[in-house]
Amino acid sequence: MPILLIPIGLCIIVFFMIVYMASRYKRCPSDKILVVYGKVGTGRSARCIHGGGSMVWPIIQDYAFLGLTPMTIGIPLKNALSMQNIRIDVPSTFTVGISTEPGIMTNAAERLLHLGSKEIEQMAGEIIFGQLRLTVASLTIEQINQDRESFLEAIRKNVEPELNKVGLYLINVNITDITDESTYIESIGKKAAAEAINRAKVDVAEQEKSGAIGEAEAVREREIRVAENLAESEKGKKKAEADQRIFIRGQEAEAVTGENKAIANIAATNAELAVKEAEAMQHSEKGKKQAEADRRIFVQGQEAEAVAGENKAKINIASSNAELAIKEAEAMQRGEVARRQALAEVQKAEYLAEQERLNAAEVVKVEVERRKIEIAADAEAERSRRTAKGRADAILAEYEAEAKGIRQLLDSKASGYLALVDSCGGDARAAATFLMVEKLEQIVEKQVEAISKLKIDKITVWDSGNGSGTGSSTANFISSLIKSLPPLQEVASMAGVELPDYLGSMTKEASTTEAKKPEEPNS
Fold first, then answer.
1. How do 71-81 and 46-49 pair as beta strands?
2. Beta carbons within 8 Å of 7's beta carbon, 6+ residues apart
3. DSSP strand E in 416-509: where?
């Protein structure tokens, strides 16, 4: 039974493969372009087909359709500057569509494949608008207004190559009306109308003069022709009468001669006809007797042959019946044996098939459970790996961004310091002094801020009375508080920078003066 199942399984697989491959064959309607993209060949982004069909291979290829329905785009061009620097309005309607030329179809597949009709119309309208304005700028008003065929040809020459770059081609151009604000076109029309009217008046006068002259010449010619025709008519009439009389006499003579010949011919023909009738009657009688004898001989011969044929046919029939009976018996014997053997094989195959079915059902059940466990474990492992990888990528990206920011900050500072040193003539000490001077304002601001944020509502000073007598305890407290802030000169000297003299210097007299400031009243 397993040996029988293998061909059946192969047949089923082949059938489904054929059905699947048939479903992958895509036909292209006449109003669309079939675009097959994916792996379509070296150096090609897509394969475009118009009409027919193509096989789209699974996994490595996919397909889409581009519609060939024409699109009508209105271009309300206004205030376009012509070659004469006159602004005109050229409202027009353009009909465009996707081209079926091989190269242009590829451009359409690359640039328009998944765009909607509105987006394609918008793109085409922008291209046409710019090229139409360029075309108007290269022509005069007279060329645009009077020679429309050349104007349309110039538009097609400028617009169509640009449309071909995105896969479109120009079907039709319709210019409705051309106007301008300065009424230049209207003036040209009035001038042309006046010229046409004047030219028409001259033509009318010329035609009237020609008509009068022609009429006089026609009357004279008519009278001459009438006289000539009357004379020719009279001569013709006389000649016709003479010819008629001659023809009648000739016909009468020919008629008499023909009658005599006809009578002689009739007599000779009658004599020959009588002789031939006699000969035909004699031959007819002989032929009749001969035909009767031949018929009887032929009939007897055919009857003898028919009897011999019937006897031979009966012998052949009897022999054939005997052979048929023998072969039927042998066939019945072989058929019965084959039937019994086939029945035994069928019963044996049914037993084996049932046994295999039970075993397969149990194996399949166990295999399904095992695959479920494996799939769940693989999914959990994959989720853990992806989570860990995502966390690691996020941390790495954060550190990389921070490092990049610090690196850019340091690079910027280094570039600024280098430019500062260069501006100081290469003297690094002078550059450091300059930087320290810039920071003095911030240092003083921080010192003031440190004291200003102290909330002193009430100060109580406990003094043991052992002071030096050079001031009250409160004054000494305030002086000590002020002295706790480092002087600017000391801060600069700690940085290895000597401040200039115009920023002041720290002396003993200044220190004494600082200590002898007025006392703060005790609170």
1. unpaired
2. none
3. none
The 10s digit of each residue's pLDDT in 410-449 is: 888 788 878 877 877 877 777 777 777 677 677 767 766 7
Cα Rg for the chain, rounded, in angstroms? 63
Strand (E) or helix (H) holding 48:
strand 46-49
Backbone phi and psi for residue 203, each to the nearest 5 degrees, phi listed first: -65, -40
Cα→Cα distances 520→471, 472, 478, 484, 497, Å: 11, 9, 8, 17, 36
b/e map of 296-334 (b: 16 or more CB within 10 Å)? eeeeeeeeeeeeeeeeeeeeeeeeeeeeeeeeeeeeeee
Question: Rounded CA gap, 27 and 34, in Å?
Answer: 8
Q: What is the dihedral of CA 98, 101, 103, 109, to 10 degrees?
A: 30
* pLDDT confidence band for 163 (50 / 70 / 90): very high
Q: Give the residue from 162, 165, 139 showing the smallest Cα distance to 152.
A: 139
Alpha-carbon distance 112 to 35, whole Å? 11
For residues 33 and 45, give the distance between their C-alpha atoms in angstroms, rounded to a whole number: 15
Distance of CA 254 to the CA centre of its chain: 92
| Gap between the Cα atoms of 258 and 269, Å rounded | 17
Q: Which of 141, 231, 132 is nearest to 179 (CA)?
A: 141
User: Three-class SS of residue 328?
Assistant: helix
E strands, 82-228, in order:
87-98, 168-175, 179-180
Please count the CA atoms within 13 angstroms of the CA of 69 that sit on its side-chain side: 7
Helix, strand, coil percentages in the chain from 3-state DSSP, rounded to 5: 70, 10, 20
> What type of residue is 504?
G
How many Å apart are CA 324 and CA 342, to the nearest integer? 26
pTM above 0.90, yes or no: no
